[in-house]
Amino acid sequence: MKVILEPIGKIVDARKYEDLLKVCRKAGINILSECGGIGVCGKCKIIIKDQEFVSKHTGVEKHHFSKEEINEGYRLACQTKVLFTEGILKIIIPKESISEKRKIQSIGFEREIQIEPLIKKIHLILDKPSLFDLRSDSQRIIDSIMKKYNIHNLEINFDILKDIPNLLREYDWNVTAILWNNKIIDIEKGDTSKLMYGLAIDIGTSKIVCQLIDLINGETVNIAFEENPQIPYGEDIMSRITYVITKENGLKELSSLVKESINKLIEKLCLEKNINPNNIYEAVIVGNTAMHHIFLGIQPKYLALAPYVPVISESINISSKKIGLNINKNANIHVLPVIGGFVGADAVADVLATGIYELDEMCLLIDIGTNSEVFIGNKNGILAASCASGPAFEGMQIKYGMKAISGAIEEFSIKNNGEVIYKTIDNLKPIGICGSGAVDIVAELFINGFIDNRGRFIDIKNPRIIKTDKGYAYIIAWKNETAINEDITFSQEDINAIQLAKSAIHTACVLLMKKMNINEEDIDKLFIAGAFGNYLNPINSINIGLIPDIPIERISFVGNTAISGAKICLLSKKMREEASFITKKIKFIELATDPEFPKELANSMYLPYKDLSKYRSVEERLKNRKVTNF
Amino acid sequence: MKVILEPIGKIVDARKYEDLLKVCRKAGINILSECGGIGVCGKCKIIIKDQEFVSKHTGVEKHHFSKEEINEGYRLACQTKVLFTEGILKIIIPKESISEKRKIQSIGFEREIQIEPLIKKIHLILDKPSLFDLRSDSQRIIDSIMKKYNIHNLEINFDILKDIPNLLREYDWNVTAILWNNKIIDIEKGDTSKLMYGLAIDIGTSKIVCQLIDLINGETVNIAFEENPQIPYGEDIMSRITYVITKENGLKELSSLVKESINKLIEKLCLEKNINPNNIYEAVIVGNTAMHHIFLGIQPKYLALAPYVPVISESINISSKKIGLNINKNANIHVLPVIGGFVGADAVADVLATGIYELDEMCLLIDIGTNSEVFIGNKNGILAASCASGPAFEGMQIKYGMKAISGAIEEFSIKNNGEVIYKTIDNLKPIGICGSGAVDIVAELFINGFIDNRGRFIDIKNPRIIKTDKGYAYIIAWKNETAINEDITFSQEDINAIQLAKSAIHTACVLLMKKMNINEEDIDKLFIAGAFGNYLNPINSINIGLIPDIPIERISFVGNTAISGAKICLLSKKMREEASFITKKIKFIELATDPEFPKELANSMYLPYKDLSKYRSVEERLKNRKVTNF
To answer: Is the CB of residue A306 less than 8 Å away from at least one CB of chain B?
Structure first.
């Protein structure tokens, strides 16, 4: 039967009575096992929701798992046998059962900023009350801060008033006050002014990235990420919104999932660095508009219905207690503003982090993800568009596609003599192909004349080209080279999936350039952002027409600028003000209503583009085609 | 046996097998009964917690009460017989069983102010979103308000974001926005801009007064009050704080009691005027510091321990939802600032309502209550003191004392021929004596030579003077004149109780005048505030030395200025700012630490004062003593 291995999303064939440890290994997954598969070490844990497709629990499994774990579907892969020949079985491999690490961009380009967080910690040795000094506890704290730092209009958080009288006396009037803006949000015993942390969080459609930041020096202390736990409710935003609309309590359910996931990340970040989560006093959150609404528990229904307007576009400050994040209970959660239904707080962060709104040069900024955002402009104004580029660059919709984890082919080229060279993540035997590998494959097949400018195989005499019932395919790695005991191929369908994805992004670039009344040569800087972007080969990206034909020295890979935008807003009050300012400077362009959209989308399906005069460098490379077809 | 009648606090003797309807009537209480005491009308409801002292429930009672009511101790007075000769039985007479109304000051002197509440209601007909107008729902509302009223920096309450998208569409974009300051706290369907109410609430130690106010014209729409339900936990503040400190959850318990009581008042106020509580968008609350802390759920412990400092002195804004008041869930609760442990938000309201902080004239302001506050000063600065004057003016600690309800002797005088004249509230047969009556009695006994300047009976030959085992007493009303079938007397002990209470207040006045370096003649205005104040005879108040000897044309009775201060803060943003400003202008003087305090307290025990040269008008009246003792 077919076995789907989550969360990497690989599908593998399993024989009847085959055990799942073998099945996983056949798929090239380095599942942990120290006992040789006899159920003693208990390392090869997997989770199976449909237990009717597999053998019953063995005695050793009952020994390893609690009742709750058994109810949750926990099994040992080595003890669990597939019972049928036909059908589909989904198994989840928990992180602790695999050793490999996903290659992901958790940091991005960072501007130089002055560190001036909204959080301040002030150590105070207060005068004790006496008959000659009858000030209230709050007034005593406020006066002391005013005297020391000349901060006026101070307020005290109502929720700490309950505790303040006892704490001040217990701490013998020697305390550290924590300020957010001009509000006293907590007090701590003695001098804790050196312990001051914040979080920058990017809630992506596919993954959640979390940085723990020292607010004193602005350094990133630790980074963690997780798959977005909403994925089972829909890979794309629209399916998730549909779930929210149609399912009672759907909004609460999806919102809670994200919060739980962030709380897990926070726990991990703190545990690893031995930091008390109560010393985290602020979190800045970015995400696309749908993720933003769902996280905040705001109805996202109208993001899915024309004309797709958000409920709120302004930035939001709210207490961690109210949201339910496990940091200091009076910490502030700052959510960056959004621009529109399809251009979210992550896009604001992109623009802020790259600083294109301040530059004289004409800039093109592309943040590639399941949804991609494209910006063109400079200090005189910015146009923005959004496009559903889909998950092909994440390795989905590609037969041997996979996420960028160990064993994924991430680079690919064809030498002059036709020899194929590839590189896998962690240099393991290949299991599949990740996004950057797929771009390389399409580009190399095109430049070397294996496929035409419509993506169709033309040289079918090559030994690597095989015919399948779904058309031609190119063998990227032979069975004997791979970890999955079969050929890894790239099919006609796979090529089309990449074309579709790149044409969406390219169309956005072309239409925005038209609106801005500029051409490729007018673009002084091209920033490629996104978790996936950094691993892209820029020339191959031009070769397939994913990005416009711009001299590569003008291209910068800026990584996860969403998270770096969040980080600089965490560290700088000024940047936070700029973020609000930016939203007013950016004009959202709804591409779907542009009469030229369908034509441009069709033109952009070509490799690199219908009009080759727009891609002189590719034209040149095609002329110097390397490979002699044989 | 002795029967204590709550909440008026009277004690009456009952014979064995006497029914409680008779006992109540003997005590002069107009308990309702329409059937002649045969248990048919069910009007004479009372509550008895100790059922073992009375006869069992009769059949008619089981018919009138539910199981829950029987468990709560509900009985019909006419059906319930006392079973013993000795012992004490406490019965509670619910308000619905009595027709009499307590004479209480629920309004006070009101300054002229410009009506400019922080609440605004703005009717909006919004543009619908379209592909050419992609603004978020919140931005659409904010823009529309900005355009119409030029209000900037608008924010939207996070809690309404959940509902806004659906409501806007359901209401077809025709809504009224409710603003508090520059925050949008709610939206309503269509044009509701004429329905805009607020509450002014005074949480007193003994009673809670609540005014419902129309925020459009500033008029008081309805007034209601209730006994403070904390009374069973201690008549005075200190006992209640002790309860909070010693009893687990005591703070929560007492806090909830007040909130429930306020919620009952709100329900009543709205029901009577057919107003929807959701149209109440703000409440301004005053109260002494202990009531303030307990209401807000803030630890009051240190108000009872030297040096008696409050936890917070600044004003507080908090949502009704958080506090638990049943008005619009996003309404703002504004609590006025406090000055010190013994000078609370009610005192700030007093000063604000009388406006003494703005006057050129030297003012003395006395707010008489269980705790009394005294202020001296003008626009150049104000000194404040607090004194535990005790509940004698509320009719407590006086043998025949009672609260100012129907049947209480409220005025008293002795004619030249020795004839006694008194007036009762509602002109009923007397049941007892309330505060203003007690002041009259002591003054008349003193001026007419029945007692000396130390309060001791000197003329013991008068037929109205009787000797009891606790000393002499004066018969105010003969048994045959009263509703209680016994003489109403005023004893030596009662006189001393009034002396103690008045000396506390007078001492505060004297010491503050000394601190201010002024004399009686320098006082241009004397304001007497408080629920009790308005019924005082000013000359008799001078005669006993409750207030300094000041020409009576300079005296104003200003009533419940605490509630009027709350009201003007509800109606005016400017007044609210003044309130904060006032707290900085008022200097609290701790009398107990003044070395002259004990001597002054002793001097003030005299009638009117030890040094008669300070009371020239009284000296004059004593010279012209009217009554020829016989």
So the answer is: yes
